Amino acid sequence: MLDGLFDPRRWQITLDSMDGFWQGFAFTLQVVVAGLIISMVLGTILGVFSTTRSRVLRGISRVYVEFFQNTPLPVQVFFYYMAGPRVLQAILGTPSPVRLSAFAIGAVGVGLYHAAYVSEVIRTGIESVPRGQMEAALSQGFSRVQAYRYVILPQTFKVILPPLCNQVLNLVKNTSVLALIAGGDLMYNADNFVSTYGYLQGYIMACVLYFVICFPLALLVQWLERRAKKRPRAKNIPGITSVEPAKEA
Predict the structure, then answer these.
(1) What CA–CA distance (Å, rounded) separates 178 from 70?
(2) Nearest 5°: phi and psi at 106?
(3) Do 32 and 87 contact (CB within 8 A), yes or no?
(4) Contact 57/222 with Cβ under 8 angstroms?
(5) For residues 46 and 64, is the Cβ–Cβ distance under 8 A?
(6) CA distance 172 to 71
(7) Secondary structure string (H, E, C) spanning the chain
(8) pLDDT tens-digit readout, 130-186
(9) Degrees, nearest 5: CA angle 209-214-216
(10) Cα distance between residue 150 and residue 188, in whole Å
(11) What sign for the dihedral angle of Cα 55, 56, 57, 58?
């Protein structure tokens, strides 16, 4: 088998079949971007909910996090694939099930799943900021939303960046679950190649293309970490602060 990995003929066939791999690569990137937006927006909201004084909001966040963290992603994706069309049929009142595209299932699947983990990262970051920061911001005329936006969340950046990066990288790799429902992603196309020719070069090529996505993200995070260590500049917050020109002596 190891001899076959170095067979030039097999590699030539693999390279000649790159169109399918590139299609899966492009589809995976689209799912990653959409899933990342969903997970970041929803995860931030739930993370803020988990640190509020409202028991209802904290309860919503906790139930969501516990459910998605304690159920496997493949099971969730299969549920969206099998039950999603019928759920939408009942909601929309259509005569037949509403078909969901592989892109929608993938984006929603990885987005909702990783939102639970992003929520915990955001919660940890917010709790690392002293409580007095919120009280001080409110006493200076900030609304609670402004306090989170301009005071609390910026201070959590250095704390949450490394684990947040890990979640982004895990999200990229977890898009491979779409291969289970013939989603047209990179892993699905690699499976098709291997099942057609029986060459493991297909999986090697998939690993290389996943690396092409993940490695630049790792470099980006390292740059953001270095940038976050620099001294922050003062901000002009509309309605709270104003920038006045320096007076001459």
Answers:
(1) 20
(2) -65, -45
(3) no
(4) no
(5) yes
(6) 19
(7) CHHHHCCHHHHHHHHHCHHHHHHHHHHHHHHHHHHHHHHHHHHHHHHHHCCCCCHHHHHHHHHHHHHHHCCCHHHHHHHHHHHHHHHHHHHHCCCCCCCCCHHHHHHHHHHHHHHHHHHHHHHHHHHCCCHHHHHHHHHCCCCHHHHHHHHHHHHHHHHHHHHHHHHHHHHHHHHHHHHHHCCCCHHHHHHHHHHHHCCCHHHHHHHHHHHHHHHHHHHHHHHHHHHHCCCCCCCCCCCCCCCCCCCCC
(8) 878 878 888 888 887 788 778 887 777 777 887 888 888 899 999 999 998 888 899
(9) 105
(10) 43
(11) positive
Residue type, 112: L
* Angle (nearest 5°) at CA 208 between 203 and 209: 95
d(CA 120, CA 44): 9
- Between CA 216 and CA 129, with CA 38 as vertex, the angle to 5 degrees is 80
**Measuring CA to CA, how many Å separate 25 from each of 20, 56, 100, 169, 181?**
9, 41, 21, 15, 17
Q: 77: closest CA among 41, 43, 46, 113?
A: 113
Distance between CA atoms of 42 and 115, rounded to whole angstroms? 6
217's tokens: 């993200």
Q: What is the pLDDT of residues 43-98, one digit of tens each?
A: 999 998 998 888 999 999 999 999 999 999 999 999 999 998 998 889 888 888 98
Both structure tokens of 4: 């076959």
